[in-house]
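Quick sanity check, biotin--[biotin carboxyl-carrier protein] ligase:
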Amino acid sequence: MAFRLAPTAEAQGFRLEAHETVGSTNALALERAREGDPGKLWVVSKRQESGRGRRGRAWATPHGNLAATLLLRAEGELRFAATLGFVAGLALAEALDAVVPAGRISIGLDGASAGSNRFELKWPNDVLASGAKLAGILLESSMLEGDRFAVAVGIGVNVVAYPTDLPYPATSLQALGSSCDAETLFLALSDAWASNARLWDAGRGLSAIRQRWLERAAGLGGQVAVRIDGTIVRGTFETIDEDCRFVIRDDKGAVLTITAGDVHFGAVASAGA
């Protein structure tokens, strides 16, 4: 089956550019923005050879995984655009729920008790299944003329394979017993994005997105360790605030608000991150 958009996405003016192999869907999307593309463009591929993860980490994907980037053009406050990662997480989790049959997939963070969601959202940009990373999200932006900017919302999903040389558990849909392919997942993702983006409403609906994200939040109420520039902060994951920043309460009762860091839960948080 070829990549295609859901009818709901087409009705809202989204467009599709599909490739068998790309260097980076994010890089290609931002290139299209600089060429004058008006946005609402999905760039998708089943193989990505030179993609990037958070903090510049290399992220290549073998054939059969999903690399998808949505190019958007906007104006106004960039801080609202930064919350699109939470829209992406919700959309992807809903898409996975729609196309992956219930069964073998369960949730358990580092031996913690299973949650009610088969797919959980780990702050700020991961989707977990069975306590392991199934997908990652990366936002990149580029300034354009006229005080406008382009945002590339990159979504990478381990459909058929996952990396084994990571410092944390990872998994794929295939490893979890699912036969869903990249094309089927993208079709559902384009549909789920359309509804969640409408709810987000250029940041005006962020409070609703925040609440829905918290309903799927991994590790909420549990012990957490956050690595920030080489320093580890420990406490209890309390919530995300109105700007979607990570909020923890340390052992002394102080509330800390974190804008960026690597998060570890459960046994990993207790033993050392």
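Posting the structure with no commentary besides this: DSSP finds seven helices and 14 strands in the chain.
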